[in-house]
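On clarity, I found the account of how folds are encoded harder to follow than it need be. What matters is that the chain and its backbone geometry are given together, residue for residue. The format is easy to grasp once an entry is in front of the reader. For illustration, here is how one protein appears when written out as sequence plus structure tokens.
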Amino acid sequence: MSSAIKTPRAALLATLLVLSVFPLFGSDYYSELLTKIMIMAIFAMSLDLLVGFTGLVSFGHAAFFGIAAYAVVLVSPQYDPSSLWLVLPAAVLAAAVAAFVVGLFVLRTKGIYFIMVTLAFAQMIYFVFHDSPLGGGSDGVFINFKPELRIGETQLLDLGDAGHFYYVVLLLLVATYVFLRILLRSPLGHALAGIKSNEHRMLSLGFPVFLYKLAGFVIAGALAGVAGFLSACQFGFVTPEILSWHQSGNVLLMVILGGMGTLNGAAIGAFAFVVLQEVFSALTKHWQFLMGTVIVLVVMLLPGGLASLTQRLRRLLLGGGSNG
């Protein structure tokens, strides 16, 4: 039992060590790609809180990702860098408020109706930015100056610096992972697990199920806002496409690919999806066909996602060792 516990911890520490030193040895291209992967991992973990741990399959999660990205644009001055003290909380708050308002309506539905209503709300928000000059319309808008962190006259961080930005993303990835681990072990996390397992029983026991689901929905939206903020800062450009159902579908595929109901799986799924997308798009313009084939094979052969692959290999090795 102790070795089974130590192995995942050792793998996490090894991964963190590799991520910490990668910019020192990797090329700029691969550092930027890894930065994108870490941002998508935060996004995937935020959705997994709903899909994997609460049983709420949302098809509109990109709305909160995009709202936070547009909040960066709207809060930032046009000719000066914005303050990280202001823009990050503003972006996360905007996503959380949007999730709260949307959640008040969509959480009154269940099953396929919940999926369709979340999609409908996300598309409504998409067209607000696509068909209005609020965020540059369909052409999108540039962020001329990336945020910076200052104390007085001293500049501590400049997100326009690729090195600074990489470690900010890594820090927020670790913070998100630790926060969700603590949350899932808290009374709220246990309540969300109970709702996923048997919502009617939770109601009969007197739990305020709607409020618990709303709390989970808002937290997931706020964490998606963290990813949206980072994405806007990385690329310096925001378009309505990041709010579209395609983006919601992509992050849902990341969760499925890695394995639902495990934070490690969400991160692994984000890594696999982004890397496969880069590889397949370099091979053919029909990369979606190859990606779809891989996902179908993973679902058929590994129902627990890629995260379950290590457990299966460990069982085979242990089984082979015991037989010997």
Q: What stands out?
A: Confidence is low (pLDDT under 50) at residues 1-6. Strands lie at 141-142, 148-151, 154-158, 237-238. The longest strand covers residues 154-158. Residues 21-245 form one domain.
